[in-house]
């Protein structure tokens, strides 16, 4: 056989090469037929193919019959461990055709999301500001991107919607933060038991749950606030261990120990954590050598020294340049107000947002940008200088950040990769949204009757904070922070059985945007006595020729309210 193959490779002219692809589900049983090399079954006593496995592991999972060309599984497959296998087959005939075989494992939703901890306890000050966030335990899902974690929901325990969830990508995994969404009052409620669920992309979705016990406490009423929610830094690949990368800073409005801040890097399953360290003053340094053209997302937590301590978090994205040379291959100058890779979502189409210059030693290359279709590099009269134009609409509510890569290519080959994180700034382009334009509710006539009405605003920070007010009536009031509509003074029964008014939800943007909700409220007398007539019986005598429409009797009744 070896002599025959030697004859094929040496003496036959230029054998052809083709690529054959196969797909197999990862749940395939042992012995599952993936297909035939030629696309159909072939019967032969002598081998028709000489099969080569480029790596030893492939032969432990797949088998190729050299006589028939049949490809089968001989072990259980797992997409999360290996998603594809390469095989080379050579026809044992005059053509000597070489066939490259690619077997791709099709991912299935065989893993459910799992939180690092099944339960967590938080202590939150009753004076925590709206928008204060708390990092929840990290969640992982062993499946690929299609079936990874897609969203988080609060299933129960969120009384008056005083909390909400936000999510962000950290090291390509979706992670959740618990955010204060309403006014907390320890005297009204001192504990919340939330059931939080992570849902993956399957249909139906697989889920993982987290029980979050929250205690509302007094004192220390200001959490540290970072100067930015996300920091970015770029370093060269040959940066030495212990080098200063970036300094993060948080401030605390309290005094004394309640305002003293300590920093730490949150422990996650990502290997990025072990690459960096942070000092007590917020200086991030390297602890090991960094891989060229890599990007690292690190979560930094700032905690004060109150009792209990309050904390907040920020993401630091560190991009390592794709070259070990001291001088960077690209010089990127952002021509925007922030002087950084940060564009407001209302940036003008066609505007120049950055100037990119290629270093001298790379001027025989061409620049290409991947990661977004909203930015287009345009070469200038100077071949090594490009202008970055905004050629697509930005919408922070749809995409809040882009992981860009500037590529320098020569003869179709990538010479340098330069990663860059682009963040999109929020503007107040969304008014608060009610679930519907009109709602029918019930209120008790007596003081204290209440109902909570809430709107949502997808904008960020102050632009997404909502304040409520009541229009068209003075019979009810509303808590401007929580949207709780309540009766301030007992409503007289002569008012009728219902009242109509509007509730206005207004955000904190400048200028502010608002939306009105039309409310029809049925007034209930659950704490009052039934109305009573002045008399139990009226008797009236009339003539038989009394004209139609003549008033016969005026009936009086009285309401008795329990005060």
UniProtKB/TrEMBL annotation:
Residues 16-115, 116-226, 227-330, 452-533 form the Cadherin domain. Gene3D superfamilies: Cadherins (2.60.40.60). InterPro entries: Cadherin-domain_protein, Cadherin-like_dom, Cadherin-like_sf, Cadherin_CS. GO terms for biological process: homophilic cell adhesion via plasma membrane adhesion molecules. Residues 1-18 form the signal peptide. The keyword Cell membrane does not apply. It is found in: Membrane. GO terms for cellular component: cell-cell junction; plasma membrane. GO terms for molecular function: calcium ion binding. Keywords: Calcium, Cell adhesion, Membrane, Repeat, Signal, Transmembrane, Transmembrane helix. This is Cadherin domain-containing protein. It comes from Caenorhabditis latens. The lineage of its organism: Eukaryota, Metazoa, Ecdysozoa, Nematoda, Chromadorea.
């Amino acid at each position: 056989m070896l002599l025959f193959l030697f004859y094929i490779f040496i003496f036959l002219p230029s054998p052809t090469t083709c690529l054959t692809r196969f797909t197999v589900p990862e749940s395939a049983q042992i012995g599952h037929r993936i297909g035939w090399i030629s696309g159909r079954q072939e019967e032969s006593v002598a081998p028709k193919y000489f099969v080569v496995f480029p790596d030893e592991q492939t032969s432990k999972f797949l088998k190729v019959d050299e006589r028939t060309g049949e490809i089968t599984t001989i072990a259980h497959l797992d997409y999360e461990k290996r998603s594809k296998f390469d095989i080379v087959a050579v026809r044992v005939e005059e053509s000597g055709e070489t066939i490259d075989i690619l077997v791709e494992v099709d991912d299935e939703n065989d893993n459910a999301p799992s939180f690092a901890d099944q339960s967590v306890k938080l202590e939150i000050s009753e004076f925590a500001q709206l928008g204060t966030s708390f990092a929840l335990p990290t969640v992982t899902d062993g499946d690929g991107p299609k079936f990874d974690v897609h969203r988080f929901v609060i299933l129960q325990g969120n009384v008056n919607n005083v909390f909400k969830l936000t999510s962000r990508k950290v090291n390509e995994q979706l992670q959740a933060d618990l955010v204060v969404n309403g006014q907390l009052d320890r005297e009204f409620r001192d504990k919340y038991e939330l059931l939080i669920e992570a849902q993956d992309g399957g249909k139906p979705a697989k889920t993982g749950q987290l029980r979050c016990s929250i205690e509302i406490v007094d004192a220390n009423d200001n959490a540290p606030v970072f100067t930015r929610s996300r920091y970015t830094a770029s370093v060269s690949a040959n940066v030495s261990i212990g080098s200063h990368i970036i300094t993060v800073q948080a401030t605390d409005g309290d005094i004394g120990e309640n305002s003293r801040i300590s920093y730490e890097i949150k422990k996650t399953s990502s290997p990025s954590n072990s690459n960096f360290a942070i000092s007590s003053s917020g200086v991030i340094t390297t602890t090991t050598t960094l891989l060229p053209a890599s990007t690292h997302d690190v979560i930094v937590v700032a905690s004060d020294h109150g009792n209990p301590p309050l904390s907040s978090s920020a993401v630091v994205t560190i991009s390592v340049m794709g070259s070990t040379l001291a001088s960077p291959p690209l010089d990127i100058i952002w021509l925007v107000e922030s002087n950084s890779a940060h564009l407001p979502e209302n940036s003008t189409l066609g505007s120049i947002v950055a100037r990119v210059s290629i270093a001298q030693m790379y001027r025989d290359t061409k620049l290409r940008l991947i990661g977004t279709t909203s930015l287009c590099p345009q070469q200038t009269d100077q071949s090594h200088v490009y202008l970055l134009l905004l050629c697509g609409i930005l919408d922070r509510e749809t995409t809040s950040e882009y992981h860009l890569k500037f590529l320098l290519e020569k003869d179709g080959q990538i010479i340098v990769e330069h990663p860059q994180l682009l963040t999109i700034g929020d503007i107040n382009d969304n008014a608060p949204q009610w679930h519907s334009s009109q709602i029918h509710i019930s209120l008790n006539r007596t003081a204290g009757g209440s109902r909570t009405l809430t709107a949502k605003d997808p904008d960020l920070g102050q632009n997404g904070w909502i304040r409520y007010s009541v229009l068209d009536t003075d019979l009810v009031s509303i808590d401007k922070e929580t949207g709780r509509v309540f009766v301030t003074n007992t409503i007289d029964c002569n008012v009728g059985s219902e009242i109509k008014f509007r509730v206005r939800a207004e955000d904190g943007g400048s200028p502010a945007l608002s939306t009105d909700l039309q409310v029809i409220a049925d007034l209930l007398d659950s704490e009052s006595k039934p109305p009573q007539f002045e008399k139990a019986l009226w008797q009236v005598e009339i003539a038989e020729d009394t004209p139609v429409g003549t008033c016969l009797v005026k009936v009086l009744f009285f309401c008795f309210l329990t005060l």
